[in-house]
């Protein structure tokens, strides 16, 4: 197990747990966002466990996929685990930077 494996384990399992422990509060339940959240939880958790158990190694994963995992984990933590907010992220960034 090398540094890349440890980084991928931390990124994937932490994003899985962040999504898993998201509290909806007073927000309205939407099935589509719940399905996407479920798929993200299962895929990131399975990836983290596969690397942790040695089934998969970081060297065999293409660089583009590693960048996608990093970007997704950062976006999940930026949105606070809210998938609806995560999917509306480009609009939020556009308004925050105020392109005109």
Give me the secondary-structure topology:
Layout: H1 3-20, H2 31-53, H3 63-78, H4 83-87, H5 89-97
What can you see in these coordinates?
This protein has one domain (3-97). Helix 1 packs parallel to helix 3 (63-78). It has 100 residues and is mostly helical. The protein contains 5 helices and no strands. It starts with a helix and ends with a helix.
In brief:
This protein has 100 residues and is mainly alpha-helical. The chain is 71% helix and 0% strand. It has helices at residues 3-20, 31-53, 63-78, 83-87, 89-97.
Q: State mean pLDDT (0 to 100 scale).
A: 86
Number of strands: 0
Oligomer kind:
single chain
Q: State the helix count.
A: 5
Helices and strands: which structural class? mainly alpha
Q: What gross morphology would you assign?
A: elongated
Distance between the termini: 48 Å
Biggest sheet character: none
Q: Name the helicity range.
A: over 70%
- Which runs of at least 5 residues are low in confidence (pLDDT < 50)? none
Query: Beta-strand level of the residues, as a percent range?
Result: under 5%
Radius of gyration: 15 Å
The number of domains: 1
Following the backbone from N to C, one meets helices and strands in this order, namely HHHHH
């Amino acid at each position: 197990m090398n540094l890349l494996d440890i980084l991928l384990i931390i990124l994937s399992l932490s994003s899985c747990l962040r999504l898993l422990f998201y509290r909806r509060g007073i927000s309205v339940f939407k099935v589509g966002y719940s399905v996407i959240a479920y798929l993200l939880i299962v895929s990131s958790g399975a990836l983290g466990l596969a690397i942790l158990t040695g089934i998969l190694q970081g060297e065999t994963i293409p660089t583009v996929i590693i960048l996608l995992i990093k970007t997704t984990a950062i976006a999940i933590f930026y949105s606070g685990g809210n998938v609806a907010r995560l999917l509306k992220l480009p609009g939020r960034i556009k308004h925050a930077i105020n392109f005109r």
